[in-house]
Each structure stands twice: as C-alpha cells, then as structure tokens.
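**User:** Hello, beginner here. Are you able to go through the protein record under this note? It all follows right here:
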Amino acid sequence: MKTSNNKEPLLSTAFSTSDKSTIAKPSCDDLINIFNDPFVIIDRHYKIVASNKAYQNTFHQKNSIEGKFCYEVSHNYNSPCSQHGEHCPLETVMHTGKPTTVLHIHKHGDDEEQVQISASPIHDDRGDIHYMGETMVSIVKEEKDPQLLIGRTPAILHLISILHRVAPTQS
C-alpha cells in the first residue's frame, strides 16, 4: 500500500462484506486507473503520490513520477506554478478545503496544451487534508481562435495590456 511521509495508507487493505467474509479493497492504483482522463494524487508539499496511466502517458513519462513535484512534471518549472502566473489548484484546495477548477497551460516536451483542471481535497478520518485528487481535460480549441481568453492567446494578451494601462501594478 502506498503512503506518503509515513502517514496512514490512502486505503485500508481489507473490508468485510455483508456475508462477513473479508476481501481486499482495491488499491489506490486500481481506483485511479478507472479514470479515462489523466488523474493524479498530490500531497500538500506538491509531490505526486500516485498517478494513473493516462497522466503518465500525457506527460510521456516512462519512469515513475511518484515523488516528483507536480509543477516539475506538468509545467517543467522548478517552483510552484503560482510563482509563474498560473493559479495553483493545490494551494486553493489546501487553503479552502473545497474543490476548485482552473485553466492551465501544460507542457509536453516542446508542445503546450491548454487544460481544465478539476481538483478536490482528500480528507482523512479526522477531516484533515493531506492530499488532493486532480483530473485534467484537454481544451480543444479552434486553431487561432481570436476570442479564446486563456494563457498567451492574442485576446488575453490584449486584455492584460489594457488592464495594465488602466491599473498598473508593481508585480
């Protein structure tokens, strides 16, 4: 059973059925691989605890990504995505204790992909949050859609330039 930082396992190893027999619960890997879309479990320190095959394939990872930082795998950054102008779903989930959905640009080698990320807290028996589950869906867009407001598209860059002119910041 996989654990992170010597905490309790994500799942118990067995449970009793109605006829009092004991059978093994599905493993964390068994459960996350039922998702067709990329899915990952991340701890509060940005470390990947588990990922499904779709997530590993999305980021062309042949070796295990468990223990790597989420921002390292998905963005090729050396620090959290929030320090690079992106909204970090992990920080939101850990701060609010509630699910969140964000739009991100992920890197796959030299290619970039716009994705919608849905993230939810994973509570332990006491209600504390040590992990977050995250699924991602690729945003299919019209090629060179001038109205798309995400990342570095012409429309969002134009909007940012207007906002900067009317409300300049120190950042």
Summary: The beta strands are 14-16, 22-24, 39-43, 48-51, 100-108, 111-123, 129-138. Residues 154-166 form the longest helix (13 residues).
